[in-house]
Amino acid sequence: MFIDIAEIYVKAGDGGNGAVSFRREKYVRAGGPDGGDGGNGGNVILKADKHLRSLADFRYRRHYKAERGQDGSSQKCAGRKGEDLVIKVPCGTIVKDRETGLIIADLVEDGQTAIVAKGGIGGKGNAHFATPTRQAPNFAKNGTPGEERWIILELKLLADVGLIGYPNVGKSTLLAQVSSAKPKIANYHFTTLTPNLGVVSMGIGESFVMADIPGLIEGAHEGVGLGHDFLKHVERTRMLIHVVDVSGLEGRNPVEDFHVINRELREYNEELSRRPQIIAANKIDVADEKAVKEFIECMEKLGYRVFPISAATGSGVRELINYVYEMLKTLPEPEIFAPEAPEVVYRAKEEDDFTVEIENGVFVVDGPWIRNLLRGINFNDRESLQYFQRALRRKGVIQALEEKGIQEGDTVRIGDGMEFDYIP
Predict the structure, then answer these.
(1) Where does residue 316 fall: left (phi above 0), alpha (psi -120 to 50 degrees), or beta otherwise?
(2) Has residue 56 got a pLDDT over 90?
(3) Which of 102, 142, 208, 305 is the most interior residue, by most CB within 10 Å?
(4) Tens-place pLDDT, residues 282-320
(5) At what angle do helices 254-268 and 289-301 cross, to 10 degrees?
(6) GO:BP terms for this protein (predicted)?
(7) CA distance 98 to 166
(8) pLDDT exceeding 90 applies to what percent of the chain?
(9) Closest by alpha carbon to 300, among 258, 269, 270, 261?
(10) 305 phi-psi bin (left φ>0, alpha ψ -120 to 50, beta other)
């Protein structure tokens, strides 16, 4: 099954907690703190794999979580780093943050990787907090949480040549004629509901990839008839073969059809209208010779190269493909998105962010770093409490409370419910 869009939740591993430990050896008097640091959490990494063709696997699993870092231990032993979680996706996958819509990465080449959620940082053990005046710190820092987010995976086919045109004009027949692809072919509209890829062999070591883009219709750039789903696959192609039914058997005007499809390309993406394009005038085996001649003359006046073909019988197809192959040798690769400022995409929430609100006379302070700080405080230890108070002042929490009008004796609630009376 061809699936070209998916949403998944990714959660990087949390950092391990620092350890509170003291040396306890037989011949070592007054052993000092020796708590080790926690390990960093594992990252969530997307990796492009040329062997994958769709995002179908993400229909059945949507939540991905990397390993947590191990906690530190005694004798200054650091915890092990959490294993990174590597998720394979097809080449041509664009990764977006669901909340912001920012593009995180464009995975084009086989083996290309992108970190979509960074692991948390391991906490420091109590050995780091020893000072000449605080020789036995009875507290450590906990690891920070790993990043988590919902991301959108959007697959855009990587093909050298795209076949475009109205439904039922013979695109699938042409692809089957020149490659080993086996698209569904029948005499009714919208036979092809998903893009098909085929490799066109031109000899040993010489080939190119052709994509049968499902039938476009008028209004496609506005999403009519799954227009957006189809049009996005045209963006990665280096050139376009516009297949036109010149037989007129369905009562449509081939010249008008040509202009409608090109208008849809232009409205969807102006650059697509400038993409190199040649015309395959199909179904000449059942078309009127005069009508074919008039169509060719009209298109050539507009500057297009036209190849009269019959995809069903193979007439004229070899000349078309040979021309395409020679033309591809002169065309550059399509421009691939590259984030101008990736640090903006990957930046986590500011560590020092916090809020101060007043609820029923209680001053409520909250923020991710404050919650993490609370988890590492031993409220039965005087030095640990002093460290906590200094951290609040250093981060600007005390100043923010004073600006809110706090007075001595007022109640302050921090995090999930830790309350104390304010004493300046």
Answers:
(1) left
(2) no
(3) 142
(4) 999 999 999 999 999 999 999 999 999 999 999 999 999
(5) 40
(6) ribosome biogenesis
(7) 33
(8) 32
(9) 258
(10) beta
- For the entire predicted model, the pTM comes to 0.62
Residue 5 CA to residue 93 CA, distance in Å, equals 9
Are 159 and 96 within 8 A, CB to CB?
Answer: no
Q: What is the DSSP letter of 404?
A: T
Q: Annotated binding site for Mg(2+): which residue ranges? A: 172, 192
When mean pLDDT is compared across 80-89, 95-104, 214-223, 350-359, the lowest value belongs to 214-223
296 SS3 class: helix
Side chain identity, residue 346: Y
Strands (DSSP E) contained in 180-262 are 196-203, 206-212, 239-245
Question: Which residues partner with 371 through β-bridges?
Answer: none
> In degrees, to the nearest 5, what angle opens at C-alpha 278 toward C-alphas 276 and 283?
155
At 328, list the tokens: 């591809």
Q: What pLDDT sits at residue 299?
A: 95
352: which 2 tokens?
């020092």
The binding site for GTP comprises 165-172, 190-194, 212-215, 282-285, 310-312
**Structural domains of the chain, with CATH:** 5-155 (2.70.210.12), 161-328 (3.40.50.300), 355-421 (3.30.300.350)
The dihedrals phi and psi of 386, each to the nearest 5 degrees, come to -65, -40
What the block records as the tokens of 265 is 């390309």
Whole-number Å distance between alpha carbons of 362 and 421: 10
The kind and range of the H/E element at 204 are: none
Amino acid identity of residue 413, one-letter, is: R
Residues whose CB is less than 8 angstroms from the CB of residue 48 and which lie 6 or more positions away in sequence, other chains included: 88, 89, 90, 91, 92, 93, 107, 108, 109, 110, 111, 112, 113
- Residue 339 DSSP one-character state: -
